[in-house]
Structure prediction request, 340 residues.
Amino acid sequence: MSHHIFTVFIQLTHLIFYESSHEHTVRLLFYIPSRRISSSTLLVLRISVQCFHHCLFILDGRFNQLHTLHIHLANLGSPEAIIKSQAEIPNLKCFVLSCVLPTYDYDSLIPPLVHRMSNLEKLGLHLTIHVNATFIDGNNLKKYILNHMPKLNIFSFDLHSIASINNLIRLPLKEDIHQAFRNFPCTQITTRIDYFLEENWVSLRDTRPFEHEIFIQIIQSFPFMENLSVNNRHSQNQKQPVASMNDNHNLSMVNYCYLTRLSMRPVHDDYIEEFLLNTKIYFENNITLDIDYKSLQRVTNSFTREDTRNNCIKIKQLNLYNEIQYPKEIQDYFPFAKIK
Prediction:
């Protein structure tokens, strides 16, 4: 189809072949990297294609007058086809790249491509990225993207970083991102960084244990967090004996001042103990707790355990699962809670 467009419309300057709705996206096919798919008049191209190597074909010199390219990919991975051209793309002034699926290849594909666009004035990146140790933050973007764009005036990015929470040293805040751009001469920088950990609602799920330090990092990065969901069936590796906790000055207490809802299902008993022990976690009042009844019963020693009682007193609503009837002792243990 793409071959027919450029052979029929030989003086084409603008081609908009793009639908913003994913459900109705029609992708232009570049199965054969034929030089017949080319134009010396095309200036503006907005297009949806399947793979990243289609993007490289478009930028290999076949559209040598192109100054604006908006390209939407289905997936962004290392190209299967061999693309030899690594030449500069001097005429391109505006480049916007988006992708439906997450990518593992951001570092190896995107910075090298953008570095070829030395005269770029407007850049947009809208991607979901799997990362190993750190998120794609302001310092990363400045070092690997912006410092190579001397003529850039507008940089708009919507980057979703996906990482294993156990690999993180520190979660950057939006203020950290803006700080990285403080001295950069761009006239407009629009940021939206999403860690799948929203400021008010954080959801933690992994196949590896969450140690106590993880919960410290979360509250440091999201101090106004109101809702927390924990899903992990694996026991903690660094759990300390209960008898030693009061004497351990190195174990920092986590203070959840703004938390109003805590959901813990399904979880290993270690995480219930993590949140109910008053030597590890401090709650303000008015917490709604979603939890499995049998797990709660085990951790509280059938609602008799003293060192979990203080945090249980601060529960205003207790949503129990897998139990139709509960004993009278549970209401005494959660004296201010409405139990469902």
Remarks:
- The first strand starts at residue 14 and ends at 17.
